[in-house]
Amino acid sequence: MMRWAQSDIRTRTLAISLGPALLLTLLLTGYFTHTRLQELREELDASGQLIANQLAPASEFGVISGNIPILDSLLQATLNTPQVRFIEVRDSQGQPLAYVEQALSREPVRIATFHAPILRQQIRLDDTFLLNPPLADGTARAEVLGEVVVGMTDEAFSQRQQQILLRASVLAVLALIATLLLAYRLAQSLARPIQAMGQTVKAIQAGNYQARLPETDRSELGELARHINHLAAALDQAQTEQQRGIAQLVAAREDAEQANRAKSEFLAMMSHELRTPMNGVLGMLQLLGTTTQDSEQAEYTALATESTEHLLRVINDILDFSRIERGALELESICFDLLDLLKGTVQAFRHSAGERGLQLHLEIEPGLEQRKVCGDPTRIRQILVNLLGNALKFTERGRISVGIRGQILDAQMLWLTCTVQDTGIGIPADRLQRMFDAFQQADTSTSRRYGGTGLGLSIARTLAEHMGGHLHAQSQEGCGSTFTLELPLPYRQCQDEEVALLVDSGSSGDDCVLLVEDSPVNQTVIEAMLRSLGFRVSLAGNAAQALPLLDLHRYAAILMDCQLPDLDGREIARRIRAGNGPNRDTPVLALTSNALPEERASCLAAGMNDQLAKPFKRSDLRLLLQRWIGPRPSTGGDPA
User: Fold this and answer.
1) Start-to-end CA span in the chain (Å)
2) Residue 534 and which of 229, 284, 470, 631 are 20 to 30 A apart at CA?
3) What's the pLDDT tens digit per position in 426-441?
4) What is the distance between the alpha carbons of residues 481 and 488, in angstroms, rounded to a whole number?
5) Which of 419, 422, 382, 423 has the alpha carbon at shortest distance from 403?
6) DSSP 212
7) Which pLDDT tens digit goes with each residue over 596-614?
8) Taking a C-beta distance cutoff of 8 angstroms, is the pair 115, 147 a contact?
9) Strand 480-490 vs strand 470-476: parallel, antiparallel, or unpaired?
10) How does 197-228 read in b/e, with b if 16+ C-beta sit within 10 Å?
């Protein structure tokens, strides 16, 4: 079956043509040969029986009279008949009366015997018998005087049989040769055009749209050749148009990129140029506020300072936005007092809140006092300032609440959750997600009434994501909004009992999890989550680091990022399942930013056991690991 599937059109045509012809020739030749040999055998038997039947009446007188010489002469005369080997006359007792035969040949032959009884014939020669001969009476039994035995050889039959077989074979061979020639002509007439079509299609597939086929006739193959030529012409025209369109798109893209670069460079340059005099103006106003002024002058100074600070915030937002677009945003990592940063940021807005008649509350979860964390305090303060500024701007009465909670993931990682809740105008549900897009506000009336560029939330979310966290919002129109910032922050100190519990959870040899993740921030966050769940963690930043570890150690589970810089995570999973290493049956859990069903299906098809979409909570990771390797002793609760 495999050879037939891989054979060419010429071989298939010959097989299809010769197969039935060969079968039909063999069947017809065999049938007619068998029929002719059967007829020849019947003729031989009829001839032998006829000779025996003719000799029986002729031998009656010799048997009755016992005249043996007459019988010998009669038998000798009949012996000259071709194919007669012997003739024997027997009496009624079966005793031979006369026997003649021809000389034996050297080659053994088959002899067929034919028997005919010798009957006594009673004939009355009176007038009554001659005038009225009696009818044959089947009941009358004649007296048997003996029998005649004739033996005939099958030499003639064998000769005729050989002649018939030879002629049939010659005819069959001639018929097959003729069929072969016709089939070969037919195969050539089909194979050559099809081969030419195949070569032309390959040339078209390779990009040679100038290839053409000869249009020789109006048969189906000719029509197919014309269609292939039309296809090649259409593809040639489409390629020309596509190249023209690609050239236009490339030119348009280059123009757009150049315009975007010019815009970003212009924004960056203007922002820097504006910051220098603005810093000078703001500094002078602050110095002016320290001098002796009357109430009117102090009011003018405060208004000028507030306007200058607002303009400076706009310039800073534009500068940050241009940095983000150019990919030039950089984050620093320094140690700072988290509680001081939070209190100082909120304290800066208490005066403005009091002037507007708003209550500003700060609620800090116990345990964050004197906590030293590492990160970018400037960017964290920028996010909080943006959230508090929006809450203050869009709240006319009521209160603003700031809630600070910290979840200890392990001895090295803190999960910070900061919520800013107001009782302002709120945001419609259909516009909530658009609030994080650049230059977007709830509607145009909001911009006219409250001012602003619409860059603050977009920059805040981008900064949060760059620091490994996320920023999301909940709101109800007319009732207020709640913005939640979540960030992973490494810290230097931890409690002694936490360290002891972490050491105890890593004492067994089968609780090590391999984390394959290229992002340093994600490595830090996920490693801290795993350690807080009671696991030891091995880190790999790419496939080159992960594959040797997989060959040397057996892990309880493998957390695999799907987008690695050197090799796709799915390909690593395929290699794990196809190999004979110690982790062939280890659960492989995919970490991906794509939560679509198609992404999950592709991970499972690659040999992964499950998928966890980023961003995820510690509780999500704990449930996933419990599903595949069972629960572990945890060193802390799940973050909100």
Assistant:
1) 63
2) 470
3) 887 777 767 777 655 5
4) 24
5) 419
6) -
7) 556 778 888 999 998 887 6
8) yes
9) antiparallel
10) eeebeeebeeeebebebeeeeeeebeeebeeb
